[in-house]
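thread: overnight batch results

M.L. [08:02]
morning all. the overnight job finished for the chain we discussed friday. pasting input first so we're all looking at the same thing
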Amino acid sequence: MLISDARRALFVHVPKTGGVSVGVAFERCCPDARSKTPGVTPPLGRHAPYARILRAEPRTADYWSFGFVRNPWARMVSWWSMIDDWDREWGPSSGKPQGEAAVKMRGNDMWRAAAAYSGFEEFVLRGTEELPRVGRPQVDYLRTPDREVDFVGRTERFAEDLQEVERRLGAEPTRVPHRNKSPHGGYHDYYSPAARDKVAEVYAADLEAFGYTF
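M.L. [08:03]
and the structure it wrote out:
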């Protein structure tokens, strides 16, 4: 989540949709950008849904709001790759000293649980049931019962949609690097029929809202 009161703009950060890069652009366009709401306990958090933001800051209902989404099958592969890469590089199986970064990740309930799965298949089949963030459709971050954000960008056309955001924020469009971009290739080969169908079931709302297909 990022808010600019000067520009009257709100970015809703859906996990694993290029939000780090979007944040760089937002902060360039909006020097007053903030990620915290004074007086709100506990803090809203980086990935606060639109509904929770509006409850905490009702005046932002009049702000221009936006977020980004991603093909659910590709998003799951990216999520698993990030967790798996960290575990192999820094987790207990790496054989490296378990320093501050490792301790921090072990303190994250989601990362700790996901790292215990045997592989991508289990991450999809069990993780979508056991880990609330993993099993939450993207559209749930961007809608309330009676409204939704004003603009939804797609990671599949990330550069073009991010430039549209910059224009809406009153800035000259730039080519902001896509930070934390997934290094893996296509996602299709990761899926068994069961895992493919599980994603379709769990993210049915995203498929309907955004027209994504396998």
